[in-house]
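Illustration: TIGR04222 domain-containing membrane protein.
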Amino acid sequence: MNTAQSTLWGRIAAFELDEPGAPLTFTRRLARENGWGEAYARRAVEEYRRFLFLAMASGHPVTPSDQVDQAWHLHLTYTRSYWDDLCGGVLGRPLHHGPTRGGAEESAKFHDWYGRTLDSYRRFFGEEPPADFWPPAADRFGRDLHFARVNLRDHWLLPRPSTLLRGLVGRLSAVREAVGARPGPVAAVAAIALMLAGCVAPGLPMGGMGGLGLADRSGSEFLNLFVPLTVATIVCSWLLRRWAASGEGGPSDPEFALATDASKGKAKLDPYGLILLARGPDRTPPVQAAVARLVETGVLSYDEERKQLITTWSDRDRTLHPVEQAALGAVKRRASWTTWKLVQAASRSPEVGSVEDRLRDQGLLQSASEAFRIRVLPVLPLVVVLVLGLWRIGLGIERGRPVGFLVLLCGLLFVATIVHLVARPWRTRKGDALVRSMDHLRERIVKDPPSPASPEFPLAFALMGMAALPKEGTLGVLGAEIIPPPSSGGSGCGGDGGGGGGCGGGGCGGCGGGCGG
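Result:
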């Protein structure tokens, strides 16, 4: 920050949103209206302050995350505080907030603004934006657009099974780190403890599973067993998956080949392989990086008006990396396709497949047999308990008894089974360690991002994804075309110190305002 920016940040940081002595302060209202804890709401207010600074100092339009946008929306309702005290007294100019016009172009624009905002956050504050307030663009313009107001007097709120399972896995991972052991013993202890809890649950004598007919038990007695058994089985299945995936190995330190070096030496880690390792299992990220590099080095050109890639024949074609050759070949064969379709076509090429195979040979990716074991092993206990639940449901229907809650539990078991079968195992323990070992380079890459022509660009793309691309010029325009096309509805929220901005989707109902007397 320069002197003027430091002064501005000092004023914003000192700006008080909570009215002293008010029973319902701004922060408490923000927490209440969003179902947050006060500690999280206080952090949201701090991120909102940082967003205000970026809107004034970054030199480009900015877009907030949904969490920060909630603080912005609420502050706009405090009209005197926002327009008079903040804009008039602290910022020195208005910061407007209005609705998006919708459509693919608007959505692409807000994707771009959001990426710039994250880049400026790193540049000015020297740290990564916290993921729980600044999620990736895919979540910001996907998952986060589905928030809705719900009257809790009329409705119950239950998490989806997938959300519940993600939280469960995160907590189990923390337990594993705390005990510093492989998860096999932890899984056994957890499963045994929870199953014993089910056997001695209220209304069920100890040893109730041994020698006693489950068909003779009442619905409540069976649920006293089945509920903890379901929880224990889901816990055990996820611990089994982590145990199956946690092979031995540590971080390797391979040499990084230049992007133009097609060396087959096993001692080197392919630069585009590094991108695939870090950003996979989708094969498109290496191709996205290759296309950007080809445009930067002049092998390809991009027609911004027609939104098409154009080949520029050169003797350099013979020295290109195989992934770059695959991207160039896709453009030559299918010039009329959209840029995103070309990226997808190249990602399915044998050249990209060979990069993945090489990572697998180096022990960085799970082999096909290991991936099968990781998928199937956790499913076995789930299927056993699911069959038990389905049997009891059939018995309940035959007897004319209510089975709704049992159906819900079986549905949870079924979803957990599908998640295990569908989720593709990717990195080995060694691969995870290698990716983590690159984190210390992130700060340097963010502060001084390499151009796509630089040998360090694959490393930057592996760490930052699409955020590694320049936001200006031809590559800035190209970046919006080599990602999946946005939905036609459009979404986004933005603002700038000159009075421009937009907001739409995700609960942003078109808030706006203006200076008035």
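Reading the tokens back as a structure: The chain has a mean pLDDT of 79.
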